[in-house]
Amino acid sequence: MRADRLVSLVLLLRQRGRLTADTLARELEVSTRTVLRDIEALSAAGVPVYAERGRHGGFALLPGFRTELTGLNHEEALALLTAGSARGEQAFGLGSALASATRKVVDALPESHQAAVSDAAARILVAPETDLLSRRTPTEEVPGGAMAEIRRAVLAGRKLRLHYAAVDRAPQWRTVDPIGLVTVRDRGYLLATRSGADRTYRLSRILAAEELPERAQRPDRVDLDRVWRERCARFLSGDHIAVLMRLNPARREDLLNTAVAVRAADPSRDPDPEPGPGPDGRLRLEATFQDLRHAEWALWQLGTDAEALTPESLRTSLHRRAAEMATRYGPASGA
């Protein structure tokens, strides 16, 4: 709709300053001629937009121009309210800010839309705490003061001092250069470097934090998605064990809750690849575990719904365990 496009044009100029007609056309996915017509329409409506000619020219708004114009349509407002209903709203200590922003979004809507959008959002639930199996997903808590310090340091690009409790170690203070924050399946992580080496810290294990005045040693720009993928790849290629297995699809969620990672089987590493579910409907998957002991424990929990195909060492340990259990609970001699 043209009204939405006009609002987007104003917001682009407010947020990014002077822009050329070609840049506006690319951002709005319209022709340059359409942008020029929209500029004329805004001027006629009293919006103080003006043109600057020359090599570095373009269109801009008069300094100090502010407006309460939001231009949110029904679907945009519903998307924001739905996102705010997810459990992720508590990520990085921004829950109260999100609640406040949501109230402002609703208040900015025309009265005729407020009730409809609020009712629609109430009928959409994203990532509830309990699933159909009545399992409650644990929420990781981070001290509010610590989270605020971490967030400020990440955004301001300053060094950060952490009191961190690593697994099976006494808490220690360490100074890091923060890169960014990531949340995955309700778990939050701080990506950082320490003395130039990559470090990833679980937010729930940070007991206290302090933003330092020194500038962090980090690039001005970062592709956080790429950084996260690279760190995940290095983590999974460490001292972990990869298990090729066949699994009853009904138990896939149980496997996800115990394995470090689960993915479809890689045909190049599968000694007997069978694309898709086999004749019995079972999935061929590759699951990563911390070590052999972890893999044995996880597959034992799945019982006959799972079969390890490789490595042979895991099959041997599971066979030995099953044989010992059969002997223990078999019929008494002479019965």
Poorly predicted sequence stretches spanning 5 or more consecutive residues: none
Major beta sheet, strand line-up: 6-5-4-3-7
* Number of helical regions: 11
Main beta-sheet strand count, sense and barrel state: 5 strands, antiparallel
Mean of residue pLDDT?
A: 80
Helical proportion, percent range: 40-55%
* Radius of gyration based on Cα positions: 28 Å
What is the percentage of strand-forming residues?
A: 15-25%
Identify the overall geometry: elongated
Q: Report the order of strands and helices.
A: HHHEEHHHHEEEEEHEHEEHEH
Description:
This protein is an alpha+beta fold and 335 residues long. Helix content is 41%, strand content 22%. The protein contains eleven helices and eleven strands. It has helices at 2-16, 21-28, 32-44, 74-85, 95-108, 111-122, 144-156, 224-236, 252-258, 292-302, 312-329, and strands spanning 49-52, 58-61, 158-164, 172-184, 187-194, 197-202, 206-215, 241-247, 261-264, 283-289, 306-310. It has a five-stranded antiparallel sheet with strand order 6-5-4-3-7, sandwiched between helices. It has a four-stranded antiparallel sheet with strand order 9-10-8-11. A hairpin with a 2-residue loop joins β4 (172-184) and β5. α4 packs antiparallel against α5 (95-108). The longest helix has 18 residues, at 312-329. The chain is elongated, with a radius of gyration of 28 Å. The mean pLDDT is 80.
